[in-house]
User: Which sequence fits this backbone?
């Protein structure tokens, strides 16, 4: 049977899937936007930046070396396409743009391992220069050996908040404070579930303890008020409310993040079935335990369909590859029992973490009318509420048609979660009733020159 497997994403899940397919004699095409493989966790610095693996990856240094060495051995056995952007997808075809121009990549089987991105609840002034997403702050450090500031505040919620703060402190930045909007220490009943992921849990405790030893305030139950700016418009601090008092943390760099969201736009373009996860408060594509989606010959792996971490992503990549091999009639010399157990074990831990670091939906719903929500289109929370009131609609794509929320360059990847909470609150309906912003091609910005190969 003719099999042309294509893998989208060269992070831990995508490369694990590619290795499993190559082991069975297939030569998968691996498409990735980045210049080098590794995803966010194993992101490479520029060649001229001399940093040790321990400096770059900390506890994950050994895994990073294994990943790098494994990819070096794998590279001749796959068709690796770095710096390649997918702007549209349909059954059997991917429309891509790379340095060599536009092209169409055919596929008989597709593994989607697109990873995740930051989820952000806006705060007044959050578009000021010097304000970054947590992921952006981490990329600056890993890829460019650059700090977003010398005095940095980390605000929001989620395990990544403490990891990136720790990495910045280790790199020499003054971490002014970690401002946690939730209360992660108020969930003692979930401790048994956390034991199922004790390695990750222990790492998190280590990051917190190290920050405390360095004198970094770790404040919980914080309400963010406003990003403060100087005469040059650059961030100078953040005002917040904590324990009944308004306070200010002065800084020249601010990183904000409220957890992660799966990148699902390609799955959406393909018409895969989705359902609402009430714990993560996200619409996620359906998949069975081995990654089979609702569409034949399309498989899901890694954080691109459920946030579970890099080690589980590798296991799910191998499971997706094994499912592809079985479904396409190939002999499958892959032991999947261990990977299934890894995924199942992690599920309990991740569910507990999702509850501990819950998306602050009430904060998003209560944003003041003057807070910019959709920065691409310049829309405030008040504009979204007015669209709900004027139209009588509560479905997010209908509201998009009335006020253009989520219609800009990012296609709602940044504003979608907060916009949905605003709409649900304004309309007085459950968040699942609002639905999700539907993906439309082009899902990433492309120029006419990109699409014509530079021809006028």
Assistant:
């Amino acid at each position: 049977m003719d099999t042309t497997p294509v893998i989208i994403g060269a992070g831990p899940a995508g490369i694990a899937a590619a290795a499993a397919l190559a082991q069975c004699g297939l030569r998968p095409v691996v498409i990735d936007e980045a210049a080098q493989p590794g995803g966010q966790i194993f992101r490479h610095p520029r060649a001229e930046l001399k940093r040790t693996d321990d400096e770059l990856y900390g506890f994950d240094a050994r895994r990073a070396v294994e990943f790098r060495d494994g990819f070096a051995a794998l590279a001749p056995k796959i068709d690796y396409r770095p710096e390649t952007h997918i702007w549209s997808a349909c059954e059997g075809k991917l429309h891509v743009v790379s340095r060599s121009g536009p092209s169409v990549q055919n596929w008989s089987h597709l593994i989607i391992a697109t990873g995740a991105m930051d989820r952000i609840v806006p705060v007044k002034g959050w578009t000021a220069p010097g304000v970054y997403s947590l992921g952006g702050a981490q990329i600056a450090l890993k890829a460019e050996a650059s700090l977003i500031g010398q005095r940095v505040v980390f605000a929001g919620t989620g395990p990544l908040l403490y990891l990136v703060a720790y990495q910045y402190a280790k790199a020499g930045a003054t971490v002014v404070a970690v401002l946690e909007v939730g209360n992660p220490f108020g969930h003692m009943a979930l401790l048994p579930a956390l034991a199922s992921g004790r390695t990750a849990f222990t790492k998190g405790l280590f990051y917190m303890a190290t920050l405390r030893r360095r004198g970094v305030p770790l404040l919980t139950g914080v309400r963010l008020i406003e990003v403060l700016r100087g005469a040059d418009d650059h961030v100078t601090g953040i005002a917040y409310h904590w324990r009944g008092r308004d306070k200010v943390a002065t800084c020249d760099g601010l990183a904000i993040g409220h957890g992660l969201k799966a990148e699902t736009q390609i799955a959406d373009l393909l018409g895969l079935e989705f359902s609402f996860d009430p714990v993560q408060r996200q619409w996620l594509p359906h998949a069975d335990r081995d990654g089979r989606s609702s569409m034949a010959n399309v498989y899901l792996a890694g954080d691109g369909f459920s946030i579970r971490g890099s080690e589980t992503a590798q296991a799910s990549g191998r499971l997706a590859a094994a499912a592809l091999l079985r479904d396409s009639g190939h002999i499958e010399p892959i032991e999947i029992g261990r990977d299934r157990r890894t995924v199942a074990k992690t599920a309990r831990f991740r569910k507990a973490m999702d509850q501990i670091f819950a998306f602050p939906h009430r904060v998003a719903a209560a944003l003041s009318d003057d807070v910019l929500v959709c920065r691409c289109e310049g829309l405030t929370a008040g504009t979204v509420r007015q669209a709900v009131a004027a139209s009588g609609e509560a479905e997010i794509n209908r509201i998009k048609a009335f006020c253009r929320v989520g219609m800009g360059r990012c296609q709602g990847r940044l504003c979608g979660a907060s916009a949905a909470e605003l709409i649900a609150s304004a309309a007085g309906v459950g968040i699942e009733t609002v639905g999700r912003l539907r993906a439309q091609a082009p899902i990433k910005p492309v120029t006419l020159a990109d699409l014509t190969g530079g021809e006028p």
Observations:
- The mean pLDDT is 93.
